[in-house]
Specification:
This protein has four domains: 46-204, Alpha-D-Glucose-1,6-Bisphosphate, Chain A, domain 3 (3-Layer(aba) Sandwich); 210-323, 3-Layer(aba) Sandwich (Alpha-D-Glucose-1,6-Bisphosphate, Chain A, domain 3), CATH 3.40.120.10; 333-422 and 432-450, 3-Layer(aba) Sandwich (Alpha-D-Glucose-1,6-Bisphosphate, Chain A, domain 3), CATH 3.40.120.10; 454-585, Alpha-D-phosphohexomutase, C-terminal domain (TATA-Binding Protein), CATH 3.30.310. The protein is 39% helix and 19% strand. The protein has 19 helices and 22 strands. Strands 16, 17, 18, 19, 20, 21 and 22 form a seven-stranded antiparallel beta sheet that branches. It is globular, with a radius of gyration of 24 Å. 47% of the residues are buried. Its cofactor is Mg(2+). It comes from Crepidotus variabilis. One of its GO terms (biological process) is glucose metabolic process. Belongs to the phosphohexose mutase family.
């Protein structure tokens, strides 16, 4: 059914009244004059919402999109909220940075202008910066908050507005709700656009902060001497911003410079060679693999466009390239962090590790065996960062945190994922292993032999209809005749179900309440075991906050490595056919 004109009309009128940008204002007027109610419905009927990383969406006119008006309103609401909730906010100031995407610099300037109009001191990170520079700068300058204009690894038509609190961590409740409410109270732009120029009151200390950042990374790596070995690395920046800061860091620490994938080395907002610039996506490393084979490289390094994520691959003796999963890198980095911590003369009594609930359970297993504190949190680095701060307040030293989506946290000055720091740690590990005639894949095998075999199988079902998603999750929660959760999957007996949407945990009597906070979307965790064997699985099903998907995160563990892949495939097949009903709903498994 076509949207009702009377519903769309006031939304259009409000837009035409408030939008200060003549191009996007004309765009909406053209759609209205031509009677394109369906397109107006897509752009206007829903208002863009804060997700796990602030605002993110397609760049075009409309309430559901990213544009000048949305940026101004968001900045006005944020500024007012910070004024009311942070003491001495004006003097502490705002840190604002931007990457190379279309509109990024312009929207950073608009944000700075909004805050400057209210009297804030502004620390403006000029030039293309990677996302971790914002939380680092907040910590270094003791700022009241920070904003990074980026859409990370999203397609070229997207951009975003990422918010960090005064603690240098992405916002969580109640700040996100408070900011959203304040945005609704400050819809009218309170100033006129000033030719997109940064106000003279902004403070540009970008170069000194970048130098401090590199020195901080050097302190984390603790590499006493330049690395001298015959290992060749190929690096891809995915058309993003990592190359400039990464090459400086390599030179400063004494690493041999990598060979760049030249076609992807420099910032390019069109992302000319990749449609989805995420190094963990299938095919994203194609060009890097070709170059690596040509130059006979041993390893591939990759960062996503805003350089907060990291991926790596190793050429095995067979000539096959092994692309490490996010969980495998997480376990490798965690083991490295524990080893470095112990070598520094520390004991593990007050050391802690963190991972998201959809990441490998191997980390909790390692923490238990090695005597470290371990905490699990909801998906999203805002939860990992805030969990780290709480642990620090309790006297713990959080030595590492990660999520399976190739995000890794090192040190105590950046409580966020950092692809540059991850790259440097990986190269240092390769160097240390090389002196022992080992490779990273060999090291990973040693960890499996020591702690047990864990293997992940992650994917998603494409589904762009919310009604179908609701039907699927309803049927999962009412699958049996007794209208309760299912009792088996893929030949495994289900022994525990945690529903983080409804607030139910079958394994925590007498209240049966989960320890993790509830999720804003659908999220169900299922634990299964195979009778007469040590094989187990842990499955998380959840909806995406930013994409039309039902995501699943499946991990199997057992005493025999060969068995795990086989039973994971069976579990996924049963999940697709009988729980998600992919054939019935014509959903694609990816």
């Amino acid at each position: 059914m076509a949207p009702v004109r009377s519903f769309i009309e006031p939304l259009v009128e409000k837009w035409l009244q408030l939008d200060p940008n003549p191009i996007t204002r004309a765009d909406i007027k053209t759609l209205w004059d031509s009677g394109d109610l369906e397109e107006l419905d897509r752009r206007m009927s829903q208002h863009i919402q804060f997700g796990t990383a602030g605002l993110r969406g397609k760049m075009e006119a409309g309430w559901a999109r990213m544009n000048d008006l949305i940026i101004i309103q968001t900045a006005q609401g944020l500024a007012e909220y910070v004024l009311q909730n942070v003491q001495h906010a004006l003097e502490l100031g705002l840190v604002v940075g931007y990457d190379h995407r279309h509109n990024s610099k312009h929207w950073a300037e608009l944000t700075a202008q909004v805050f400057a109009e209210k009297g804030f001191k502004i620390y403006f990170l000029n030039g293309f910066n990677h996302t971790p520079m914002v939380p680092f700068s907040i910590t270094e300058m003791n700022a009241a908050c920070g904003v990074m204009i980026t859409a990370s690894h999203n397609p070229k038509d997207d951009n975003g507005f990422k918010v960090y609190w005064k603690n240098g961590v992405q916002i969580i409740a109640p700040h996100d709700q408070g900011i959203a409410a304040m945005i609704q109270m400050h819809q009218v732009p309170m100033f006129k656009l000033k030719n997109n120029q940064i106000l003279s009151s902004c403070i540009d200390i970008t170069k000194s902060l970048q130098a401090d950042y590199i020195q901080y990374l050097k302190s984390l790596i603790a590499c006493p001497e330049p690395i001298q070995n015959a290992i060749t690395y190929v690096n891809t920046s995915m058309h993003g911003v990592s190359d400039a800061i990464l090459s400086r860091a390599f030179e400063s620490i004494g690493y041999p410079l990598y060979i760049p994938v030249k076609e992807q080395q420099k910032p390019d907002p069109t992302f000319a060679t990749v449609s989805f610039p995420n190094p963990e996506e299938k095919g994203a490393l194609r060009m890097a693999l070709n170059i690596a084979n040509q130059v006979e490289a041993s390893y591939i390094l990759a960062q996503d466009p805003d350089a907060d994520r990291f991926c790596a691959a190793e050429k095995l003796n067979t000539g096959i390239w092994k692309i490490f999963t996010g969980d495998q890198l997480g376990i490798i980095f965690a083991s490295q962090a524990i080893s470095n911590y112990l070598q520094s003369g520390n004991n593990t009594t007050k050391a802690a590790l963190i991972s998201s609930t959809v990441s490998s359970k191997m980390l909790s297993h390692i923490a238990k065996l090695e005597g470290l504190e371990y905490q699990e949190c909801l998906t999203g680095f805002k939860f990992i960062g805030n969990t780290a701060l709480k642990l620090e307040e309790s006297g713990y030293n959080v030595i590492f945190g990660y999520e399976e989506a190739i995000g890794y946290m090192f040190g105590n000055k950046i409580r966020d994922k950092d692809g540059i720091a991850a790259t440097l740690h990986f190269v240092k590990l390769v160097y240390d292993l090389c002196k022992q005639n080992k490779t990273v894949s060999m090291y990973l095998d040693e960890l499996y032999e020591k702690y047990g075999y864990f293997e992940t199988y992650n994917g998603y079902f494409k589904c762009d209809k919310s009604t179908i998603i609701e039907e699927i999750f309803y049927s999962i929660r009412h699958q049996s005749k007794s209208q309760t959760y299912p009792t088996s999957l893929g030949g495994f007996q289900i022994y525990r179900i945690i529903d983080l949407t409804t607030g139910y945990d079958s394994g925590s009597p007498p209240l049966f309440k989960p320890t993790l906070p509830l999720s804003s979307g659908h999220m169900i965790q299922i634990m299964g075991k195979q009778l007469d064997s040590s094989n187990t699985f842990f499955l998380t099903l959840r909806t995406s906050g930013t994409e039309p998907k039902i995501k699943f995160y499946l991990e199997g563990s057992g005493s025999k490595k060969a068995d795990i892949s086989k039973f994971l495939r069976i579990v996924v097949d049963d999940l697709a056919e009988n729980w998600i009903q992919a054939s019935f709903y014509s959903l694609e498994l990816c």
